Each structure stands twice: as C-alpha cells, then as structure tokens.
Automatic annotation (TrEMBL):
InterPro entries: FAD-bd_OxRdtase, FAD/NAD-bd_sf, FAD/NAD-binding_dom. Gene3D superfamilies: FAD/NAD(P)-binding domain. Belongs to the FAD-dependent oxidoreductase family. This is FAD-dependent oxidoreductase. Residues 47-354 form the FAD/NAD(P)-binding domain. It comes from the Bacteria.
C-alpha cells in the first residue's frame, strides 16, 4: 500500500482529499475488520513504529545506525516533534515554552532519518495474523473521521507510551496533566498570565517535581496526596518524611493523608477542590480542616496506565498497570514480529518507565529486527533521581515502601538506607541529602 509522506497526512485542505484524509490508494471501509479485497497490497512493508515519543525515535535512531535504507514508517497521533520529555517538569520556572523544548519538528526529523511519518494518525486495530494495522485520522475536525485505511508491516514496534490516570474525582475537562508537550504548552500559556494558585493531586516523583517548578515560577502551590509524605509509594516512611519537610520548608502547602473527592468550576471561573482525610491515615490529616480548596488550576499526577486497545487487538499479553509483557532479552511480545519498548512495556511484571534504559532497549530491538547477532537486553533498574533542588534524592534498584529497610547513615545532612531481600542481599538503596548551603 502506498501512503504519502509525513506532513501531508491528515492535514490536507485540498477538497480532492476530503474523502480520503489518509491519502491512501484504497481506504478500507469504516469498520474494524475490512474484507481482504479492500486491503491494499504493500510492496515494501518494512518496519512500522507506533508512537513518536523518546522510545519510538530511539528505535528509529538505532535501526538507522545499522541500516540506512530499510523502509520505516512512524505512526503518531500528534505531529511527531522530538523533545526530551523529562524537561516538562522543569520548564515553567525556566520560562520555556513548548516550542523551546522541541529539538526537531516531526517532519524535519523524519526527513533526516528517511522515515515515512504518518502524523496525526491513530491506529485503531492490529491484526497480528495478516500483519496489518488499521488507521484513522486523529484530527477530530476531519469531515470523514470514520474513513479507515490499512497498512502492512514486516516488523511492528509498539512505543505508544502510557496515559495519565484520571480518577472519577478529577474530571479531564477541568484538570491538567503534564505528560505530553502539547498539554504542557497549553498550561504554560495559562500560567504566563501571572502568579496563580495551582493544586497538584499526587505527590509521586512527577507531582513533587512540578510542585517545586511552579513555586520557583512564582505560583502558589498546594500538593495533595493520599499518603502522609511525598514518594511514600516507593520509599520507606523515614525517607519520605525528609522529603515532606523539604517540600514544606520551601513554602509548598502539602496536604498529606487526604483524598480528593471532586473538582468543580465556580461561577468566577476558579476551581473548587473537595477533599477529605483518608480514613486510615496515621498523620495529622484528621486534625486539619478539610474545607474546599479554591484554586486557579488543578494538575493530576495520579499515575499512568497503558491503553488496552492495541495490545488486546494484537493478542499480546498485557496488564493495564504495568504494560505489554515482553521477553526480557529480545523485547519481543508473544505475537510474532511484534516488539514493545518504553513506558508501554513491562519486564518480569515490572513497568519500564524511565528514560535511561531506552537506548539499550532500542539497540536490542534494532539488532533483533535486522537479524544481527546480539547478546540480548540485560535489564538493570536505572538510578532514580528526583530533580528537586530543595533536597537531593537518589535511589537504586527497585525501591518500595515496605520491606526490610536498614539505616546505614542518619545525620541532619544525610540519610542512607538499604532494602534487604530474603537472603539479606541489598535490593535497593536510597540516599537523601540536604542541598549544599549557598554562600552569601
């Protein structure tokens, strides 16, 4: 099947294309499984990558480093721009807009890598038997949004990432997330109007980093979490308590041990956040007032989930919480010729949602796809660093809140703890240091 290049896909204003927004030779009927006679043949199927985040582009880089000519198609629901996602939790205080974070536009990056970019395109179905994907324009304003097209693949790489979780108490139409550059850009524009009050729901790593970034940008920040301290789901209470103290010493209002029950918009345009103490909280939540909080914006930082539609359609083993199950050494799924990488995959039941391993993961997939000998991917949990300046937090291994944590160093300036497994071997560490004093 022939599909035209990157920047023409789903963006054409030519009336001649109105009935075929994907510009395919033979668009399939508007149903999930088009009949065989409606499928266009693909003379050069090649590799198809779904998702143009860090993971997807890393795979393309790794393949192109070893094969300049093999056909690669990149499918993304956005424009495919290349940017470093971890910067999103630091950029507002640096007065950086979304455009400032883009390292290369999707069109330019695709041209440089000799990639066929299908921007603003969603994959609605995967047929692992015929090795075909069904596509539709992601532009909701498209007059023929239900017109589908198909594309075939020799090898498929799922790199579609993970999506923010929005509990029922956090309506998506009222609450922001900072998981994508487009949404970040919209929030940044709103905050550029001047000092505002922002409530952040969820005090994991992302929520805690955003809280400091917004505070440094001159905004009032309230950080709300079910637990009594930030990072309580991954660190022992003794370590998390130090983070809570550092966060509050900056001037961030931390409401630990509270659950948000709803967010509504007032007549004046502000948002009312209703919350109540968690019943089993051991902290001071019960003693504090839980009158509704009135703020200008609410940001959800309540975790990630992997969209079930494509893994389910492809018939690959999958868990919404951790992601697509892959072989630990090849990163292949249980379906032939389908791989997964990055936020959407899991190894041995553990989600892989850190940037550091992506390059090695991509290299393994590239070698395996190209039939090159390789030693296999050796997954090692990366060092975890909190980007906050108020306190230094570093963790290794796979830290968790519970377990046999032992204190190795405990001073006013430093706390070092080790997590021991059943064999008394160290399975994780956490090091927390006070920031160096700034000399006047």
């Amino acid at each position: 099947m022939s599909i035209e290049n990157a920047d023409t896909l789903a963006n054409s204003t030519n009336p001649a294309n109105a009935k075929n927004p994907l510009h395919t030779e033979n668009p399939a009927p508007a149903k999930n499984h088009a009949s065989a006679e409606n499928h266009a043949s693909a003379e050069n199927k090649g590799i198809v990558v779904v998702g143009a985040g860090l993971a997807g582009w890393h795979v393309i880089d790794a393949i192109r480093a070893k094969d300049k000519d093999i056909a690669i198609t990149l499918i993304t629901a956005d424009n495919g721009d290349r940017y470093h996602k971890p910067m999103l939790t630091m950029a507002i205080s640096q007065n950086k807009r979304a455009a400032d974070l883009v390292r290369a536009t999707g069109a330019d990056a695709a041209k440089a890598a000799n990639v066929n970019l299908l921007a603003n395109t969603q994959v609605t179905d995967v047929d692992a038997t015929t090795q075909q994907l069904q596509l539709v324009s992601a532009l909701r304003s498209d007059p023929v949004y239900t017109n589908y097209a198909t594309i075939s693949y020799d090898k498929l790489v799922l790199a579609m990432g993970a999506q923010p979780i929005f509990p029922k108490s956090l309506p998506e139409d009222l609450v922001w997330h900072v998981n994508h550059i487009e949404r970040f850009g919209q929030l940044q524009e709103k905050l550029a109007a001047g000092s505002q009050h922002v409530a952040i729901v969820g005090a994991g790593m992302v929520g805690t980093e955003i809280a400091e970034d917004l505070l440094k940008a001159g905004h009032e920040v309230t950080l709300i979490d079910l637990n009594d301290a930030p990072l309580s789901q991954m660190l022992p209470a003794k370590a998390a308590a130090r983070i809570a103290a550092a966060v509050q010493s900056q001037g961030i209002h931390f409401l630990g041990g509270y659950q948000v029950s709803g967010v509504t918009r007032q007549e004046d345009g502000k948002l009312q956040v209703r919350y109540a103490p968690v019943a089993d909280s051991a902290g001071s939540a019960a003693a504090q007032s839980s009158e509704p909080l009135v703020v200008d914006h609410v940001i959800a930082s309540t975790g990630l989930t992997v969209d079930a539609r494509l893994p389910t359609a492809a018939g690959v083993e999958f868990d919404r919480r951790t992601g697509i199950v892959v072989d630990a050494t090849t990163l292949r799924t249980q379906a032939s010729n389908i791989y997964a990488i990055g936020d959407c995959m899991s190894i041995n039941g553990v989600a892989c949602r850190y940037v550091a391993p992506l390059r090695a993961q991509a290299a393994t997939i590239a070698d395996d796809i190209l039939g090159m000998a390789h030693d296999g991917y050796d997954h090692k949990p990366p060092m975890i660093r909190l980007k906050n300046k108020a306190i230094s937090v570093m963790a290794t291994g796979v830290p968790q809140a519970t377990g046999n944590w032992q204190v190795k160093t405990d001073t006013d300036d430093e706390l070092i703890m080790e997590l021991l497994d059943d064999n008394n071997d160290v399975s994780a560490t956490v090091t927390i240091k006070a920031p160096p004093m700034v000399k006047s």
